[in-house]
Amino acid sequence: MQSVIQKIEAKFKKSAVVDVKSGDTVAVHQKIREGNKERVQIFQGMVIRCDRKGSHTSRITVRRISSGIGVEKSFLLHSPLVLKLEVTKRSKVRRNYLSYMRQRTGKAARLSGVEFDRQAVNAVRDTAAEAEEAKLAEEKAAAAEAEAAKKAATEAKREAKVQAALDARK
């Protein structure tokens, strides 16, 4: 029997998420809102920490080196802003929290890879997230089409002015 809190938490959980472990190299597709525009940003790096795996607050911390500076970002796996999570490489590690990777750079930061079935791991499908991504693409296409129509209308007005000016000269 579920408690009231567990029932409420179950509403906000995604139906399925990718099985991510520490040491994996992942690409996280995150929805970013800037003003009234939305776009999808991909953050690719190594998972250095996995927290609360079974909970709706399960979180991963992803680290990457950007322009020589280490950047870490934490993602809630069940967040509606995380659209997609792809495991690109799986490495052999014996810890859950890879804090020692912060001091490593270059070749010292490499981990030995492990063979895994990439399609099977990434085959988790969330229809709601896919629908949201399709909606974003559709809105972007509609905005581009409206912009093209507006541009064509202003071009037509300019052509009409030029034609009127030429006809007035004759």
Task: Characterize this entry briefly.
The protein has 170 residues and is of the alpha+beta class. The protein contains 3 helices and 5 strands; from the N terminus they run H-E-E-E-E-E-H-H. It folds into 2 domains: 4-125, SH3 type barrels, CATH 2.30.30; 129-170.
Note the main attributes of this structure.
SH3 type barrels, 5 strands, five-stranded antiparallel sheet, single chain, 2 domains, about 35% helix, elongated, about 170 residues
Write up this protein.
- By secondary structure, the protein is α+β, with helices and mostly antiparallel strands.
- It has 2 domains: 4-125, Roll (SH3 type barrels), CATH 2.30.30.790; 129-170.
- It is built from 3 helices and 5 strands.
- A 5-stranded antiparallel beta sheet has the order 4-3-2-1-5, covered by helices on one side.
- Strand 2 (37-51) and strand 3 (59-66) form a beta hairpin.
- It is elongated and about 85 Å long.
- 11% of the residues are buried.
- The mean pLDDT is 86.
